[in-house]
Design goal:
The active site is at 68 (proton acceptor), 223 (proton donor). This protein is 3% helix and 46% strand. It has 541 residues and is mainly β. The radius of gyration is 23 Å and the shape is globular. The two termini are 35 Å apart.
Length: 541
Amino acid sequence: MTLDRRILFKAALAGAAGSAVAGGAVAAPACATTAPTPRWGMGPEGQRIADLGDGTYLNPIVAGDHPDPTILKDGADYYMTFTSFDSSPGLVIWRSGDLVNWTPVGPALTKPLGNVFAVDLVKHKGRYFIYIPADVEGRGFALYVIWADDIRGPWSDPIDLKITGCIDPGHIVGEDGKRYLFVNGVRRVRLTDDGLAADGALEPAYQAWRYPDDWIVEDFAPEGPKLMRRGEWFYLINAVGGTAGPPTGHMVIAARSRSVHGPWEYCPYNPVVRTRSVSEPWWSRGHATLVEGPAGDWWMVYHGYENGFRTLGRQTLLEPIEWTDDGWFRAKGGDLSAPIAKPRGGRAGPSGHPLSDDFSADRFGLQWSFHQPGADERTRAVYEPGGLRLKGRGTSPADSSPLTCIVGDRAYDAEISIDLIGEAEGGLLLFYNHKAFLGLGFGQAGLKTFLSAEEQPWMRMPLGATTLRLKVTNDANIVTWRYSRDEGKTWTRHDIRSEVSGFNHNTFGGFLSLTVGIYAAGGGEVRLRDFKYRALATSAA
């Protein structure tokens, strides 16, 4: 590669965050931030957590890529799960006693189902259900359901509801005692009493409130309907404006009716939540659910992109609401830049979980998942004394199914030791999808460098090693790689540094995040040992 081509290539790594418009006025560039770095609480390995330890919290309540939250109040406990897309195991359920501190319980969807979008977690007559839109084998989206008698599982295999062409199910029991799913559009379908099949046709249910035409949004796209009943009213909360694109697009709106069959009355406070300026810390806020707090106050859970850190995906946010005298609700959190008083009466508990892994216990679903796995993908991984043995698949990260781990910090180190067994190749990645990844790998051909989802042959280096420790540092989207031949006692810094803020949905699609990834390719196997994660302080805002 010539020097000129290298310069052009490195410039392309930055991606494009674009510019945004709030209301009708031109805003600052979307990548510009000027606010000082917020201060969060500190969890395992220095990871940021929401609880500040003084009776307040600072969003996000679940950091990293946890979009489309669906929340269930179950007695004194709260449970939440999120869209898992092409990751398997998926639909990890999280638990909290105070709405602020959350820890994972385990995956509800243990086998690959396809591309899984926003789900709904509900409890009906003592049984738990998760309604799942999934695109199975590229046949288009259809609705499935899994159920369990215990939130911890075991969960049933997916049951096809035979409802096609829709996403974002929201479950509600009507005034007639019948069960219904509302979906994007907004449309409605009745379910059988056991909730395991459709009991009628999909039909229009509601014409969503429309924002002024001069607002800068991505698309109208009424989606994410979530319903609840309070007193004599049914409340329908949904999103419009698109889920990414301009930071000012996504928003929360509401309507109410005395019947699930309508007519629906628009909330006078619409939009209840919306990012109005690119100077706010959270962009594209939407896909909300209302939930009652431990002491009877009310809250709204939804997702948003972090200003300057779209690479982390859509993260889970918590905002207080107030009920008005005329039976509507209003959001009270503002732009979420300041700490907020925690919900009253909750049980404080641990927050987050360590990511460092000595591979002595199975953490699939809790931490590790395969990206776009085949039906037999889990059989590639075998725990054994000394590490996790992973069979090779494909010839490089571009055609393998890498192990991925979601991260939620603005800056971090991650490192791992990899042993090659047979004619294998392995490596450490920052992985968005098969079109967007970077990292280091090694095998019989020596040390390989991956940038913009392809190897750079001009950077290949003879190595002569079957064991290597690899390390990545991501400091506010500036990425540095290192490798060690002596298990991390000494390190060699790789010559290339990258800027990765463009590795997000607005550039590559898919609604994903930049994860830590590990790949194994070729005809042999790799042994993974001693994965370590550490959050870092950064001065970036």
